[in-house]
Amino acid sequence: MRDYIVLAPPLPAKDGAPEALRLVFVKDGFCWPALLITLPWLLYRGLFVEAALTILAMVALGLFAEPLGAAAPALSILLPLAFGVLGNDIRRFALRRRGYRVRGEASGRTLEEAEIRYFHGLPEEDAPPPSAMPVRVAPAAPGAVIGLFPQAEGAR
């Protein structure tokens, strides 16, 4: 099971969307995309200050590679590894810096399962409106259909 920290946005939506639809679920733990594709991950998540600092660290590492000697390759490996370990924590910190506040925790095998578990435990006034939830509509059939096939047994 994965744990997620649930963060709420600071201001109400301008388009009238309920807060429950604007919550952000950030996984607690190791972040593989932050390890493997650090800079694109930072830009995708909107962590522009952190991306600029990462670029500066990479440039500084390149400039001082010769004086550092054998430590330069180790540091170039440690930087993405640090983002893999701390990536989700950095993302939560950046969201809190923007005014998001922690609303709770959720756990599940997938993000969708964690969302379901979180909203199932909320009081009714905080749950998303029924119109926002997907609705499965059965197709209209001329007669009663029993089983998985829309036609009667003899019509095949």
Q: What would a concise description of this structure say?
A:
The protein is α+β, with helices and mostly antiparallel strands. The protein has helices spanning 32-36, 38-44, 48-63, 65-68, 71-97, 111-120; strands spanning 2-8, 24-28, 101-108.
Mean pLDDT level: 83
Instruction: Count every beta strand, where a strand is a DSSP E run of 2 or more residues.
Output: 3
Q: Quote the beta fraction.
A: 5-15%
- Give the helix proportion (percent range): 40-55%
Distance between the termini: 46 Å
Which residues form runs of ≥5 with pLDDT under 50? none
Label the structural class. Answer: alpha+beta
For the biggest β-sheet, the strand order reads 2-1-3
Query: Which shape, going by the Cα principal axes?
Result: elongated
Largest sheet: 3 strands, antiparallel
Number of individual domains: 1
Q: What's the SSE pattern?
A: EEHHHHHEH
Secondary structure tally, helices: 6
Radius of gyration: 24 Å
What layout of secondary structure does this protein have?
Layout: E1 2-8, E2 24-28, H1 32-36, H2 38-44, H3 48-63, H4 65-68, H5 71-97, E3 101-108, H6 111-120
Antiparallel strand pairs: 1-2, 1-3
Helix pairs in contact: 3-5
Give an account of the 3D structure.
There is one protein chain. The protein has a 3-stranded antiparallel β-sheet with strand order 2-1-3. It has one domain. The protein has 6 helices and 3 strands. The chain has 156 residues and is α+β, with helices and mostly antiparallel strands. It starts with a strand and ends in a 36-residue tail after the last helix. The chain has helices spanning 32-36, 38-44, 48-63, 65-68, 71-97, 111-120; strands spanning 2-8, 24-28, 101-108.
